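Table 4 source record.
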Amino acid sequence: MRIRIVDAFTDRPFSGNPAGVLLLPGADAFPDDTWLQNVALEVNHAETAFAHPLPEGAEADWALRWFTPAAEVAMCGHATLATAHVLHTTGTHTGPVRFATRSGVLVTTPAADGSVTMDFPTAPLTRIDPPAGLAEALGTQPLTVLDTGPNVGDLLVEVADEKTVHGLAPDLKALAAHSERGVIATARAEDPARGYDFVSRCFFPNVGIDEDPVTGSAHTALAPFWSERLGRPGLTGLQASRRSGRVRTELRGDRTLLTGTAVTVIEGDLLT
């Protein structure tokens, strides 16, 4: 069985967010969950995507699941982008792809320039009071805190400025107590002439990821937050991890379009 490592939300290797991708043969059910989790742990990237084709007449073209090294997740943008990239670049699928997932049917659409646009549900944002201890865990005083709902499972935390986002060094053990998955820290871009409108970093200790390099699902919460603030439906976000990457977003009510590119960097055989 072929396994690939794909860098997502980037146009060059060794940046963006790496994901494992396995296209499973046949239209049967997924293998045992223990096997899926063990493969994800072996790959040891933020997420590994597993997909198998669905029979003609099904609600979608492919079934898709995502696993971190520690747990299955309900939504993952970068591994969806990576899977669509593999389907298109290997000639396995042409045109839009409908994925049946735990978050409903997600559609990805390729463009002539090699980018892929993903149609995801917009995260419902609820403003909350900053939880006790959050400022100490994050290492800075929050300006705004929002709950992102069950699919994303994070706290979205606005901080003072872009410099603050870059400089964060949170207490991850303490941070884990404050949300289901983790914390998205964000601020407005200091200079939009650099090609992005807002900046973020994502810390997900509850699913075994200290810092996620580039997070598509987080942008389903960042898009409505910043589109309302900046008065535009279409924006570009920079996720300022060490690997870094950019996500183009377009808010369409209860749906958010996420656009990015990907690069396959490793391809080989899974022997077990």
